[in-house]
């Protein structure tokens, strides 16, 4: 069954799903009852949510308004193999997990790092991308060259992200300025409102190659290896298994590499490691 892209803009979703109370569990409001579970068996259609502020993983085209990106191609490839259609929703990143908990969404793909805390609230597929955190500073700033130089600094990042947690827990005296929209974090550094930005490496690098060219630069080494996973409302074990099998198939038959090269220009150096991490 080919997946049909049904795109719905839902600016008000973030406000409503935040009533779920962050990462606290609660009863789902979807068809499957608690946690949004499907009660057994696969459905013909699932609601997939993303946050289109994470270029090049997911963003909205200026012409036509279609949602495109690495994550979008990956999830539609999985859906085609498993055999379900997608009803696509968009919301702010910090509203994704609460929305999965309440049953507003079934699946989320948004460059989301797999963490123990998040695994208490949602289920994850096997990793589909290996990443880490990257520092970006103003092009003419030579005072920050490594993570050690961020002590006591003001660091821009995204609200609800693992980088925000990292700043709070690992960089002494630093202040995390968090933003709902990621471009605001970059603009804060460009405008002098923050000393640096700390966020997921592929997004920082992509921004500097495009909108931030000549304005920002990366410094230091990659921080904290991370795995991205597709989040699924708890209680959908059969769906997670089917998605894992489809993802492993895409890696094995070369489809994954084709999608990766389309968005990042080359095959990932960690492809063998990613293949080994897939669950059987």
Task: Give a brief rundown of this model.
It is built from ten helices and 13 strands. It has 280 residues and is an alpha/beta fold.
Salient structural properties:
five-stranded mixed beta sheet, 280 residues, six-stranded mixed beta sheet, disordered N terminus, single chain
Describe, in plain words, how this protein is organized in 3D.
It is a single chain. The chain is built from ten helices and 13 strands. It is of the alpha/beta class. Helix 2 packs across helix 8 and helix 2 runs antiparallel to helix 9.
Binned, the helix content reads: 25-40%
As residue ranges, the low-confidence spans are 1-39
Strand % is 15-25%
Distance between the termini: 23 Å
Q: How would you classify the helix and strand content by structural class?
A: alpha/beta
Q: Count of helices?
A: 10
Any idea what the shape is?
Answer: globular
Number of strands: 13
Question: Roughly what is the average pLDDT, rounded to an integer?
Answer: 86
Query: Sheet with the most strands?
Result: 6 strands, mixed
Give the oligomer, counting copies of the same chain as homo and different chains as hetero. single chain
Side by side, the strands of the main sheet go 1-5-2-6-13-7
Helix and strand arrangement:
Blueprint: E1 5-9, H1 13-17, E2 45-50, E3 59-60, E4 67-68, H2 70-82, E5 85-90, H3 96-102, E6 107-108, H4 116-119, E7 123-124, E8 129-138, E9 154-158, H5 162-170, E10 175-179, H6 182-190, E11 196-200, H7 201-209, E12 216-228, E13 231-232, H8 237-252, H9 255-264, H10 271-276
Parallel strand pairs: 1-5, 2-5, 2-6, 9-10, 9-11
Antiparallel strand pairs: 3-4, 6-13, 7-13, 8-11, 8-12
